[in-house]
Design brief:
264 residues; alpha/beta; Rossmann fold; six-stranded mixed sheet; three-stranded antiparallel sheet; 8 helices; 11 strands; 29% helix; binds adenosine-5'-triphosphate; P-loop_NTPase; ECF_ABC_transporter_ATP-bd
């Protein structure tokens, strides 16, 4: 057994909103190298779980959310281990004055949404940022402002921003939302390369078509609770998805991917 602490270890985590428990996770452990998809319908608690992991909210007293074995993190240190990309982050970088693409990636070193006079940017940070942009096929965007990019282009830059630190894991919250089919295809290909490069992926989604071949574990959420936890072969079936989403779904493997059709 390795001594590496779990990427994520949750125990007795409950989150309340308006006097209702919207997330109740007695136990969830994810290990480094274990690429995982958290799958659930609208309202199942996915965003609440993301906020727990990113420290935007905290569980009720007695709950525990440990990342890489630690309860307390400052955001700067955490970002070096866990990169975060969500479909809504692009809005944070539509800044005035405009934020240039490489500066956006460099700003990740300061866990900031732009570069400020007090940020001491080193040549190594700039080099790492350029290299991360090249890794995600976005080197040609250097010099452009974030506000001028398409959704697909900006999503790549944000992945580069998360990867520039060489984090051990990436948390991807609905990363394909807003992408057209071609952009989604290229984007998923790029994520496959990231996974093959050794970065653990934690994908939050309600689209089974986005579950990469490199993802082996599926955790399903329903009503703020873990419903199932297992392999793709067991959980990406017609019966399991019909139950999860509450309408007739026919699931079929397509090579190493899965596809779902609604049969209503
Ligand atoms: N601040 C809040 N006050 C009241 N209810 C809330 C609050 N935040 C979330 N909820 C409720 O908690 C449940 C889970 O919400 P959450 O946003 O985590 O779901 P989700 O799986 O991310 O959904 P989606 O796929 O639509 O984004 C929903 O029923 C939601 O209405």
């Amino acid at each position: 057994m390795s001594d590496t602490p779990p990427l994520l270890s949750i125990a007795n985590a409950r989150v309340m909103a308006d006097e209702t428990c919207i997330l109740d996770l007695p136990a969830l452990t994810l290990h480094p190298g274990e690429n995982t998809a958290i799958l659930g319908a609208n309202g199942s608690g996915k965003s609440t779980l993301v906020k727990l992991i990113t420290r935007q909210i905290y569980p009720l007293y007695g709950g525990q959310v440990r990342i890489f074995g630690q309860d307390n993190w400052n955001v700067f240190d955490l970002r070096k281990l866990l990169g975060i990309v969500s479909s809504t982050m692009q809005l944070d970088f539509d800044a005035d004055p405009p934020l240039e693409v490489v500066d956006c990636v460099v700003s990740g070193f300061f866990a900031a949404r732009g570069l400020w006079a007090h940020n001491e940017v080193t040549p190594a940070m700039r080099d790492a940022s350029q290299a991360a942009l090249a890794d995600v096929g976005a080197a040609h965007l250097a010099g452009r402002s974030m506000a001028s990019l398409s959704t697909g282009e900006a999503r790549r830059v944000l992945i580069a921003r998360a990867l520039a630190h060489r984090p051990r894991a990436l948390l991807l919250d609905e990363p394909c939302a807003g992408l057209d089919p071609a952009a989604r295809h290229h984007f998923l290909d790029m994520l496959r390369a990231v996974a093959r490069g050794g970065t653990t992926l934690l994908l939050i989604t309600h689209h089974i078509e986005e579950i990469l071949p490199e993802i082996s574990r599926i955790v399903t959420l329903r009503g703020g609770r873990i419903d199932e936890d297992g392999t793709k072969d067991r959980l990406l079936t017609s019966a399991a998805l019909t139950r999860l989403f509450g309408l007739p779904i026919e699931a079929s493997p397509r090579g190493a991917w899965f596809h779902a059709d609604i049969m209503a």
